[in-house]
Input
Amino acid sequence: MIEVSLPLERIMREALEEDLGAGDLTTDLVVDPGLKGTASVLAGEELVLAGITVFSRTFEILSTETRFVYSFRDGEKVPAGGEICRVSGSVTSILKGERTALNFLQRMCGIATLTRKFVEECGGMARILDTRKTAPGIRMLDKHAVKIGGGFNHRFGLHDGILIKYNHIAAAGSISKAVARVKLNGPHTLKVEVEVADLAGLEEAIAAGADAVLLDKMNPSLMREAVEIADRRVLLEASGGVHLGNVREIAETGVDLISVGALTHSPRAMDISLELKS
Output
């Protein structure tokens, strides 16, 4: 379960402000402000639940009297038609928070569900990683959903990991020069990863002292050769063009990690609805 930190609280409040603006015209005109009620949150399809804390807290920001009864926990599979939870309290608060809360829940469930499919397809042969290709402003939610789905987080941002990519190599002049600069000036506590496109780049990165190498858009045959060359001297990460149709074949090459941008840059929002009981 994700901890509701100050940055997360800010995300939820800004999302509510974006939707509500000066107020909910329809609800304020139609619904008695004193009306109490209960709503069911229903899964329209099978999904992996993720983000139930964020969902609930969104309503609580609008009314501290909102109450919840949960049928499932984060990480559990919810069958199609299953009742995820019930929300009780002020009907005006429920209606005002409905869309924002569902937006968070549908996206996080979509990420967790897709991640779980990749993890299951891999069969434990390699770790499934996310990337920085997340929705702006809600990276902590996207990456948390990946963890709930059984995946692992790559670096959170540019500040907490060293990944030397093609443009860094071009700026430095070579892989060896780029790694040397990092080794000379960088924190000793951080591993150094280098992106390469071919086996020559892999060998140069290993010789330069890289701790991990990202194999960019290599086919499975090249990946197998890379695994033999590396001989466990460095971690190998496969990246680029990974999808459910080829992830198992990639895992079978012997790489340690497989990063999948699609987990967070294009997840499908799951079919979840909130239905107020009359």
User: Anything to note?
Assistant: The mean pLDDT is 97.
